[in-house]
Amino acid sequence: MPSHTPAHDLAERFRHEGVRDVECIFPDVSGMPRGKLMPAARFAASAELRIAQAIAMQCVTGEYSEDPVFPPTDPDVVLRPDMATLKKVPWASQPRYMAIHDCIEPTGELCAFAPRSVLQTVLQRYAALGLRPVVAPEIEFYLCAAHSNPDLPLQPPVGRSGRAEVGQSAFSMNLLNELAPFWDEFQATLDALGIASDTWIHEVGLTQYEINLLHGDALQMADQAFLFKLAAKEVAIRHGLNAVFMAKPIAGQAGSSMHLHQSVVDAQGRNIFSNADGSASPAFGHFIAGLQQHGAALMLIWAPFTNSYRRYVVGSQAPINLHWGPDNRTAGLRVPHSVPAARRVENRIAGADANPYLAVAASLAAGLSGMQAQRAPSAEMPGDAYCAASDRTLALPRSFDAAHTRMAESPEVAQLLGVDFTQAYLAVKALEHDHCLREISAWERRYLLPQA
């Protein structure tokens, strides 16, 4: 719905469609939708809506950090709707709309703690240079049977054939169609939300799938990835399923990623990664070099939970370093074969559990830093990048602790993502990790109980 829609027309539309409420949502630090339900008439009248500033930084456990970066008075921010995101909620039992909101401080500035603000701030740096990033996410996830006991492993659902999948079914059309009722409704839901997808495939894992979103404006694509995950979960529940975006939800199965294809265009829409003769431009190498320079310190953005690090396994097509190479899926930074106008860098590091706003913001901020400093990338990696794992200058942290330490010790991350946000993010992630360490795992019970 256009942002210039008059309030009277919007109110009339709501009355005509019988809409009572609008979901006023925004992504929190984990990429989960938070917000308030507002009467449709008040939304159409642009009534002011406020929420506690700390909600944007609520831990996945529901806790809040007491780090000094958060004001002790727990002030409010204003929720301001991005009217371009106003959509009818496809899964609602009664007519209802939703809109993604920005968190605005009383001063009128974007709230530094809100992930959508972080991405917008990075995009403002590009705009100041007359540049616009173009992004296309590839999102992997699992469809699992309904699951209520967290002590038990996830299980594949029974398909329309009456059987559960047993695995080894990459790119199988038969098994992609096993859950056809879900896919039919999910595709209709994405269409209703204006989320343009490209290919849909069955991935390597047991009932694991990948859907590629079409490329577009970076903020719009982050919005679409955010709504994509929300829609998948809602539609899955309607079919007695769970849509699971954990990086490593099932032991022995493939991890789930969120690969990010990135390019940059100028004011005329030309891809600055290509020269007029079709060759790679210096900016292309500088962008890659920026990712190599800052990637290890940004790892906690792309792998935000303890579980995230179970995905980075040698030989699994999940990267363990920041090498780059043409059409090389063993490298953290892949350059797909393309025509010059579509030359791009595929950042293969982020997991499906990453917040899409923060994942995109971190990748673009690092690339821009490389372009502005005119850094030179490493030599391209034509072969198996796993064999180069001993190159410590390009190695990625392989554990939560290592990634947290790397970010905390990097003065550059605060420059890329903001001082207050970086301090707040580190505090929230430390609190979540402390909570995780209080759990006793099945591995500990299995091996230590009878022997330790």
What is the H-and-E element order? Answer: HEEHEEEEHEHHEEEHEEHHEEEHHHHH
Q: Give the biggest sheet.
A: 9 strands, mixed
CATH architecture field of the largest domain: 2-Layer Sandwich
Weakly predicted, low-confidence segments: none
What's the CATH C level of the largest domain? Alpha Beta
Highlighted features:
single chain; 452 residues; alpha+beta; Creatine Kinase, Chain A, domain 2; 2 domains; nine-stranded mixed β-sheet; six-stranded mixed β-sheet; 15 strands; 32% helix
SSE order and pairing:
Layout: H1 7-17, E1 21-27, E2 33-39, H2 40-44, E3 50-52, E4 76-81, E5 87-88, E6 96-104, H3 115-128, E7 132-145, H4 173-176, H5 180-193, E8 197-202, E9 208-213, E10 216-217, H6 218-238, E11 241-244, E12 258-265, H7 282-294, H8 299-302, E13 324-326, E14 333-335, E15 345-347, H9 356-373, H10 400-408, H11 411-417, H12 419-437, H13 442-448
Parallel strand pairs: 1-6, 13-14
Antiparallel strand pairs: 1-2, 3-4, 4-6, 5-6, 7-9, 7-10, 7-11, 7-12, 8-9, 12-15, 14-15
Helix pairs in contact: 3-9, 5-6, 7-9, 10-12, 11-12
